[in-house]
TrEMBL record:
Recorded GO CC terms: membrane
Lineage: Eukaryota, Metazoa, Ecdysozoa, Arthropoda, Hexapoda
Protein name per Swiss-Prot or TrEMBL: STAS domain-containing protein
InterPro entries found in the cross-reference section: SLC26A/SulP_dom, SLC26A/SulP_fam, STAS_dom, STAS_dom_sf
Keywords: Membrane, Transmembrane, Transmembrane helix
Localisation per UniProt entry: Membrane
PANTHER family hit by this protein: SULFATE TRANSPORTER
UniProt source species: Arctia plantaginis
Membrane topology term: Multi-pass membrane protein
Primary localisation category: membrane
Residue ranges annotated for the STAS domain, each copy included: 482-557
Any Pfam family: STAS
Biological processes, Gene Ontology terms: transmembrane transport
Residue spans crossing the bilayer: 49-69, 120-143, 170-189, 234-257, 297-314, 368-388, 394-416, 428-448
Length: 584
């Protein structure tokens, strides 16, 4: 009979789960385009087109620049801005997020691309599959274990490394950029005598122009005239397109000098435009005249390769949460969307893609209404790579380096150091560990060691929970009240026992265990608490267990019969203590 009931319960549970997964609403959540497309209007079309074109003007120079950071042909960065964006339009749940190549993913990818460009396309495929798997299994909660200090430290280390790697094209020095921040800095000073004047001058001027344009917004107030407000809005669009404008001006300068056979700058060079070669990602490649099969390529990625998909989804979800306001972000859907974006990217010779903070901020500020903004952005970049690729030849590398360096300024989270110093020095240690290991050894090691340090900090806190206590005098009785809060794990059992013994033996003969804020405790904690109470009662101490939840009472009674006499309830403990005096 029991087996029949159990089978019926499991069947009903499976039926409810299947009904939930197969419902129309569930499928609509997995294809968000079916939610917003039926409500689409001409007004939305205009606003999305303006936002998409504005973002596209930034995506073109950044796509080229990030591809060069990874050591890939420039058009690969543009492909990464096109096809993943089209996928995100269908599966993406956040209207503001713009998907494409990012500086951090480019930096993580660079050491693999140094062996062969095929690793970039395989990385897109493997990252996409891994992220899709996390989404299908609804394992988004795992990302909650990577804390804010770890993310901030990793982001700052990545920004430092990427900025340092751009010193080589900015000053046109010789040598290698290195795979770490310290390596790039050492190379810069080692080859500082090879600095080229005109590239340096153009790079510094590009940085200055970008910073000036960024701050050159026209303030608008309620008292501003309508004409002035329109002018301010038009100028704001110029400010948002500053990357494209600076690149355009530098390319015009390089082209004009080329007419007089003067080439003072290192140029981007030939970009093979047109559509990519569509097909499955490479599962074998050639490195140093040696053919590597799929298994050997996986061994090149190693365990460190898992950092890329984790960073990709962390970036995207963090950006979505930042721009969602009070709206909830469906982490599972974002995983499915970013995973699908990268799987398609691998079929189109594109590098790994995820949400970009800079381009998402521009998208949001431009008034995007739906994910259709990604479509217009992708179409503009597609138009550029197919019809205007010859014009990219004259883009100076120093200008692209300047764009990347300025973009990195906004990624460096240094102001958080002051907050952590004042409020949580242990989190500052985690931040510093992630930052400096990432900068000195490698970004992958930084985030892994930072996460490990954070887990250690969390375990230490679980093993040593705070036990606030205070003394009180009720009548003529000296008492001590010990407050136990939260959920106590087995790792804290010895600590709880030692602290209860210490506070009891130094503060009074009546000990109150205040459990009003205690939600749960493991078996080991309960056993040790009973043991110390029984030991101290033999020495003449009296214990009152105040306001324990029924589940905790049952646990303690199961471990020691007759323990229910210790439990007292009520809004005040004083009458119970006075009752002890009266009984004596």
């Amino acid at each position: 009979m029991i087996e029949v009931i159990g089978t019926t319960v499991r069947t009903n549970r499976l039926r409810r789960t299947a009904s939930k997964l197969c419902s129309v609403e569930s499928w609509k959540r997995r294809f968000p385009i079916t939610i917003w497309l039926p409500k689409y209007s001409f007004e939305y079309l205009i606003r999305d087109a303006i936002a998409g074109i504005t973002v596209g003007l930034t995506s073109i120079p950044q796509g080229i620049a990030y591809a060069m950071v990874a050591g890939l042909p420039p058009q690969v960065g543009l492909y990464s801005s096109i096809f993943p964006g089209l996928v995100y339009m269908i599966f993406g749940s956040c209207k503001d997020v713009t998907v494409g190549p990012t500086a951090i993913l480019a930096a993580l990818l660079a050491k693999y691309v140094a062996k062969s460009a095929d690793f970039a396309y395989l990385a897109s495929f493997l990252s996409g599959c891994f992220i899709l798997l996390l989404g299908v299994l609804q394992l988004g909660f795992l990302l909650d274990f990577i804390s804010k200090p770890v993310i901030s430290g990793f982001t700052t280390a990545a920004a430092m490394q990427i900025s340092a790697s751009q010193l080589k094209p900015l000053f046109r020095i010789q040598g290698s950029s290195g795979n770490t921040f310290i390596g790039a800095i050492i190379n810069f000073f080692k080859n500082i005598k090879t600095v080229q004047l005109w590239d340096t001058l153009l790079g510094v001027c590009s940085i200055g122009a970008l910073l000036l344009l960024k701050r050159a917004t026209i303030p608008v107030s309620p008292s501003t005239s309508e004409r002035a407000a329109r002018w301010a809005g038009a100028w704001l669009n110029v400010v948002r397109a500053r990357n494209a404008l600076v690149v355009f001006a530098a390319a015009i300068l390089a082209f004009a000098l080329q007419l007089y056979d003067i080439t003072p700058f290192a140029l981007t060079g030939t970009i093979h435009g047109g559509l990519p070669h569509f097909g499955v990602p490479p599962f074998h490649t050639v490195v140093n005249n040696q053919t590597l099969n799929f298994h050997e390529m996986l061994s090149v990625f190693g365990v460190e390769g898992f950092v890329m998909p984790l960073v990709a989804i962390l970036e995207s979800i963090a950006i979505a949460k930042a721009f969602a306001g009070s709206a909830a972000v469906d982490g599972t859907q974002e995983m499915l969307a970013i995973g699908a974006c990268n799987v398609l990217a691998s079929l189109c010779q594109a590098m790994p893609a995820t949400g970009s903070f800079t381009r998402t901020a521009i998208n949001h500020a431009s008034g995007v209404v739906t994910p259709a903004g990604c479509f217009f952005k992708a179409m503009l970049v597609l138009l550029a790579v197919t019809l205007m690729s010859d014009a990219f030849y004259f883009i100076p590398r120093a200008t692209l380096a300047a764009i990347i360096i300025v973009a990195m300024f906004s990624l460096m989270e240094l102001q958080i150091i002051r907050t952590m110093w004042r409020n949580s020095k242990t989190e500052l240690v985690v931040y510093g560990c992630t930052l400096w290991l990432g900068a000195l050894v490698g970004l992958e090691y930084g985030i892994v060691c930072g996460a490990a340090a954070d887990v250690t900090r969390a375990l230490a806190r679980a093993a040593r929970p705070p036990l606030p206590h205070h003394t009180l005098k009720v009548g003529n009785q000296d008492c001590v009240s010990i407050t136990i809060t939260g959920a106590l794990s087995y790792s804290s059992s010895q600590h709880i026992q030692e602290r209860v013994r210490r506070y009891a033996t130094t503060n009074g003969t009546v000990v109150v265990i205040d459990a009003r804020l205690l939600h749960a405790m493991d078996l080991g904690v309960a056993a040790n608490l009973i043991a110390v109470i029984l030991d101290l009662e033999k020495e003449g101490y009296t214990f009152l267990l105040w306001n324990f939840k029924e589940t905790l009472k049952k646990l303690l009674e199961d471990l020691h019969c007759g323990f229910d006499s210790h439990f007292v309830d009520g809004p005040s403990i004083d009458r119970h203590i006075l009752g002890l005096q009266f009984s004596r």
